[in-house]
Amino acid sequence: MSFDRDAALEQAMLTFWRYGYETTSIVDLTTAMGVTAPSLYTAFGDKKRLFLAAADRYAGDPRAMEQAFDRAETAYEAVRAMLIAAATAFTGPATPKGCLLASATASGSLASADVQQAITDIRTGIGMRLRARVRRDVETGALPSETDAAALAGMVMAIIQGMSVLARDGTDRAGLLAIVEQTLKAWPVRSGS
Q: Which tens digits make up the pLDDT trace of 8-31?
């Protein structure tokens, strides 16, 4: 039987998502992945590198996200799709509740500061791409000229992180989607629109 690196990484991602980085043990990982510790170390190096690979898998390709933002007719449409996707992912029947990026390092110690920084970098990248998309709408007049792109992108990121916590606390998909709709009502519009 050959080692399926992709399937093993998927199981590692789900394990970190469920238990967090600090509290997930090598035994938890090898059990979930169906591999021995030496196989894990050979394929991924160590727990930290495995976690970073799992976080990258979870976050997806940054270029694909940027392309999705670019393809959206407006920043509003990009954000709407992003929020609905988050609500759906955070309440999936086959995955842990909430967001891996929010929950995996929530109780991290200073020993995992570099891991927390890697997660921060992923979130920062998402926020930067979102901010750029909002700025584009400001420049084209799709959003009011006084729109604060950084604050608007920050609001969306805060809503996503909050939805993650609510999902972990038991809020169902319908509840999260209601939050999405309420959030979108706060989206700025040009006067006369």
A: 999 999 999 998 888 899 999 999
